[in-house]
């Protein structure tokens, strides 16, 4: 049976991170700046419902910034900017008002 790289990563994360997740008072997301959406979605699949209620801390891979709130704020700004990109089709921009709204597609 072939195992994809993403599935192998998820299994590895569960085996190595499970004990740490139970003790960490924060939900910690490790994301790459150039893959925000896919990394965030992949990371969130590892956590339980209880973990998803914890305060969020974000770590950008390869960066040493400590998240005292600024990194998380930057993460959401970048994530929303990316989600509004027409390639995802989540939002529509109305030319007459420049309003962005959820796409009906």
TrEMBL record:
Example GO molecular function: ubiquitin protein ligase activity
Catalytic reaction(s) noted: S-ubiquitinyl-[E2 ubiquitin-conjugating enzyme]-L-cysteine + [acceptor protein]-L-lysine = [E2 ubiquitin-conjugating enzyme]-L-cysteine + N(6)-ubiquitinyl-[acceptor protein]-L-lysine
EC number(s) from the headed UniProt entry: 2.3.2.26
EC supergroup of this enzyme: transferase
Keywords: Transferase, Ubl conjugation pathway
Keyword Transferase: yes
Domain (HECT) ranges: 48-105
InterPro entries assigned: E3_ubiq-protein_ligase, HECT_dom, Hect_E3_ubiquitin_ligase
Record flagged with keyword Secreted: no
Pathway assigned in UniProt: Protein modification; protein ubiquitination
PANTHER family, alphabetized: HECT DOMAIN CONTAINING UBIQUITIN LIGASE, HECT DOMAIN UBIQUITIN-PROTEIN LIGASE
The protein's name in its UniProt record: HECT-type E3 ubiquitin transferase
Source organism per UniProt: Cirrhinus mrigala
């Amino acid at each position: 049976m072939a195992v994809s790289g993403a599935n192998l990563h998820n299994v590895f994360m569960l085996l190595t991170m499970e004990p740490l997740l139970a003790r960490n008072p924060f939900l910690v997301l490790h994301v790459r700046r150039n893959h925000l959406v896919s990394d965030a979605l992949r990371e969130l699949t590892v956590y339980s419902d209880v973990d998803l209620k914890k305060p969020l801390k974000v770590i950008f891979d390869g960066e040493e910034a400590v998240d005292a709130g600024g990194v998380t704020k930057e993460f959401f700004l970048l994530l929303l900017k990316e989600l509004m990109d027409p390639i995802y089709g989540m939002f529509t921009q109305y030319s007459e008002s420049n309003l962005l709204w959820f796409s009906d597609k």
